[in-house]
Here is the input.
Amino acid sequence: MSYWWLTKLTCSILLIASIIISAFTSWLPDINTSDSLAGRILVLVGGAIFLSHYWLIKRDNKRLEEMEYLVTQTALFKRIRHPMYFGEMFMMLGYVLIAAHSLTLLIFVLGILALVMQAKVEDKQVADKFPQPYAQWTKTTKLILPYVY
Here is the structure.
């Protein structure tokens, strides 16, 4: 596990914990624990994106660490190289909308930075394992955000 992967995981856990803790205590007195419908929708959509793409990879490659071939033309993989991280970004943003606070916003920014850095680490690993298909794939896809980045 890389430093960036652990950082993004920690940020996600902290964001979830902030929602749970703030629902029962006033540890952050100025936290806005709104019943944000938009936040809940983002969490659900992000979770669906994450799980569906995890399933696509797992279905075709029994062990993610030992991928037999590069999945490039299925679902969001046609547009971005890291759709699971795209889903995680949605979930993190949803958590921030549910538990709005300057601290959760800071954790969100750190989490997004960690997602991007981890995606770059994984891109390097995939490029080393599948040099030719990866080079072709990068010509038609973005890292995490479709059509943007």
